[in-house]
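Exam revision sheet. Question 4 asks you to relate a sequence to its structure. Input first:
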Amino acid sequence: MKRTATTVLPSAPDPASARVRVSPTAPPLTRIPRLVGLLLVTVLILGLAACGGSATTTAGNGAPAPQEGPVVRVGSLLDSEGTLLGSMVIQMLDANGIKTEDKTKLGTPEIVRAALLAGEIDATIDYTGSGQYYHQGEEGDPKWKNASQAYEAIKKLDKDKNGIDWLTPAPANNSEYIATTKALSEKEGVETMEDLAAYVKRGGAVKLIAAQSWIDNPLGLKGFEEAYDFTLSDSQLIALSTGNTAEMLSALAKGTDGINFSLAYGTDGQLQDLDLVILVDTKDVPPVYEPTPVFRDAIIAAYPGIPGILEPVFKSLNQVKLQTLNARIA
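Answer key, C-alpha cells:
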C-alpha cells in the first residue's frame, strides 16, 4: 500500500529515474570536460601510479600513437556523476590513441541501456545492482546485495545474452541510504541503522525527507523498517515526487521544516561539504550499485587493451574519492 507523507514539497520534474542525481547547481555540459581534465590528473596520480598503469606508445611528436579501429561512442546518464565517469573514459581512451565520440548526458537509464543494446553507443557507465532489472527472474535475488556476486552475475548474464562486457567496477557503492547531520549523529549516538531504530523507539524526533518512490519501495524505507524493526508515521515523513537528493540534503543541512534525516546516495558529493553522515546499513538492505564501465564486446575485441587502460582508474575510485570528485563538480 502506498504511504503518503503529510507534506509534499514542490520540486522540478525529475529528468530520469531514481538512479540519476541532478544537482540544480551542476555545471553545464560545456564545463564538465574542463573540470574532468583537472580531476583526472588527481585520479591518474593516485590511481595509475599506485596500480602501475601506463599509457600507450606515443608518436614522435609526443602525442599518443593512433590505434586502428572503430570510433568508440561513449554515452552516459544525465547526472553529473555519469558525465564525470563517462568523460574520464573518453579522456583515458583518447590518451591511448583510441578515437572516441562524446555522447555523455545521453538520457535516462532506459534510453542509455537501449542505445547500448541497439549498438547506437559502444560504451557507458552502469551500476552493478541494476543488472537485476535487465534480466528476467533476477529482481530481488539476494546476490544483488553482495558486491562481488552482483558484479559476477551481471558480467556473465550480459556477456552471454547481449554481447556486453562489464569491466572492472569502482569500489564505491552508490546505493540509497539514510543520512543525518554529524551533529545529531554525535549527540544522539546514531551511527548505524540499529542506532536509528533505537532512537525512533525511545521517542527521538524524526523528520525524514525522501522520494515518494523510495518510501514505498521494499528495498527502500519499507525494507529498512522491516529489517531493523521500526516504523515511521506519515507525520514523520516529507515526500518529494523526484529522486533529486541535492535539494533533500540541502534541506537536511539547514534543518528546513525540522528535517533531520534524508535519503542519500552513497557517493553524493554534498555529504562532505554539508557535514552529513550516512547511517551504516549492517544488514545490506538495498542492492549494491558500483559504477562500472560497460562496453560492447565488439569494441573490446577491436581494442583488447581497454580493460587494462581503465582498470587502475576505476580501482582508485573508492567511496570517499568519488564523493570528493562529485563534490567538486556539484
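Marking note for examiners. The mean pLDDT is 85.
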